[in-house]
């Protein structure tokens, strides 16, 4: 069994393209060395990330990420065990979808098509459903900044 953990948070500082590229590069190195995989999503100043891998390693990484001062309102949405990873063999995939009419904030970072395909094919899986919804600007469950920002835009 592997641990699967889903959280969402809000961007606190403005990340430049090279900040985000560096974050992803370091994350991929770190995660690959510990058998952790997953995907980081960005939409309208908000993050959602799934982490998958050995339970102790995933919990320890989440504790580090949650303490990172570059984001805020970190909300754990799901922490569960499953037989196989939703996104096998992906140290940390990336996707950004800008709100309608906006340009991407990180145009040089390519969306990971393979991971997006896996999310699309995962059907009613609750994590995949939450991630697909997040990328389309759906209200994020559990309140906090994420909901407030999404509601602001809707109103
Ligand atoms: C949204 C977000 C997602 C992150 N994802 C990862 C990740 O998957 N793996 C990782 O090693 N660090 C990730 N980080 C960076 C960690 O929070 C932390 O900076 C890094 O592990 C270095 O930790 P340290 O400063 O305690 O050495 C992420 C940071 C943010 C803001």
From TrEMBL:
A GO molecular-function descriptor: blue light photoreceptor activity
Cited InterPro entries: Acylphosphatase-like_dom_sf, BLUF_domain
Residue ranges of domain BLUF in the record: 2-93
Protein name: BLUF domain-containing protein
């Amino acid at each position: 069994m592997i641990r699967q953990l889903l959280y969402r948070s809000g961007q606190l500082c403005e990340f430049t393209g090279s900040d985000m590229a560096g974050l992803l590069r370091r994350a991929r190195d770190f995660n690959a060395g510990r058998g952790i995989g997953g995907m980081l999503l960005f939409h309208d100043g908000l993050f959602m990330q799934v982490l998958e891998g050995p339970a102790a390693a995933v919990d320890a990484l989440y504790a580090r990420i949650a303490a990172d001062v570059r984001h805020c309102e970190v909300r754990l949405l799901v922490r569960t065990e499953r037989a196989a990873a939703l996104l096998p063999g992906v140290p940390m995939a990336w996707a950004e979808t800008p709100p309608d009419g906006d340009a991407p904030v990180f145009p040089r970072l390519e969306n990971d098509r393979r991971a997006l395909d896996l999310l699309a094919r995962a059907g009613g899986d609750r994590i995949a459903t939450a991630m697909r919804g997040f990328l389309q600007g759906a209200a994020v469950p559990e309140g906090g900044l994420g909901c407030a920002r999404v509601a602001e835009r809707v109103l």
